[in-house]
Design a protein that fits this description.
It is a single chain. By secondary structure, the protein is of the alpha/beta class. Helix content is 26%, strand content 30%. It contains 5 helices and 7 strands; from the N terminus they run βαβαβαβββαβα. Strand 4 and strand 5 form a beta hairpin. The longest helix has 17 residues. The radius of gyration is 15 Å and the shape is globular. The two termini are 14 Å apart.
Length: 162
């Protein structure tokens, strides 16, 4: 299943919906993670907050390919996208295991294929380097076998990279 998580406006809705199986819109109309870890322990993969991200762990956890479209924010995800990723901690469990000789949380949904990040907005070379390193680490931590980062100079290029 291909999932696209994005912080774009509604003018891109039709294009994005045509390119994937499920869309998660990071529009900021939800509460940030409270850090209670209930999605890990009390009610696995489900947040206690009853908003549109209540079951985002299950959506992102089942993605074979996760495409994240985010505006650059100092070499990291936009705050709206970061909040969604924070709320998806329940895709793993509180137990630990070794993957690639490093300690990581055990995956609740198993391994995945591609963690792809599409970045738009002004980006310096240092921010590009940070994004690439972060995407690679996020992919490993969430059980994706590979990562890819694409930097757009113009959102008109979006269709070709989704």
């Amino acid at each position: 299943m291909k999932v696209i998580l994005h912080d774009l406006g509604s003018e891109h809705k039709e294009l994005i919906e045509s390119k994937c199986d499920h869309v998660v819109v990071a529009d900021g109309r939800y509460a940030p993670c409270q850090g209670c870890f209930g999605c890990w322990t009390k009610h696995p993969a489900e947040c206690f907050m009853t908003d549109k991200l209540q079951r985002v762990c299950r959506i992102l956890g089942r993605a074979d390919e996760l495409v994240i479209v985010s505006q650059n924010l100092y070499g990291g995800y936009s705050t709206a996208v970061k909040n969604v990723l924070d709320r998806s901690i329940g895709t793993s469990t509180p137990l630990s295991t070794y993957r690639g000789g490093q300690m990581h949380h055990t995956l609740r949904y198993g391994k995945h294929d591609l963690w792809k990040v599409v970045v738009y907005g002004d980006t310096t070379q240092a921010e590009k380097d940070t994004f690439c390193q972060m995407a690679e680490r996020n992919a490993i931590n969430d059980g994706f076998s590979r990562s890819e980062v694409v930097f757009l100079s113009d959102l008109a290029e979006l269709e070709g990279v989704l």
